[in-house]
Amino acid sequence: MAKKTPFLERDYTYDEKNRLYFPVLKILVGSKESKKKISALVDTGCTSCIHLCKSYVEKEKLVLGKKINKEPVPFSVADGHTINGNLYEAICEIDGKEEEVIVSVIDPEKFFQEEEPKIETVEPLLGRGVIDKFDVLFKGKERKIAVFHPE
Question: In 3D, which of 85, 81, 91, 15 has the Cα closest to residue 55?
Answer without folding.
Answer: 85
